[in-house]
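Entry:
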Amino acid sequence: MELLLLIGRILFGVFFIMSGINHFTNAGMMSGYAKSKNVPGAYLAVVGTGVMLVLGGLSVLLGLFPVVGLVLIVVFLLPTSVIIHNFWTVEDPQARAAEQINFLKNLALAGAALALVYGAADWPLTLG
């Protein structure tokens, strides 16, 4: 079972690390989209959330301060779901469907992060 937890942590952590790196490499495009959703300080918000994602992902991957990392992930996912992926305001059916998928994916990831908090202080195979 410890091996399964480690594999899950690797997959979960790498997902958020890559997402955070994407915020840095595509900050211009992402900040334009965030601005269109009325996010104040869109560029700084994209870069700041990129930092949250990388730190949260590394925390889960390495097992260093895992509760802090999981909180960073949840604090990113929940507001992003409501502010950026607010599908209920989108008129175009195709765009609405895409936003709804991202909204639900974020909620599922937040749920997984919250579930991982359970027992995080005793995770095996960590650096912390």
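The mean pLDDT is 95.
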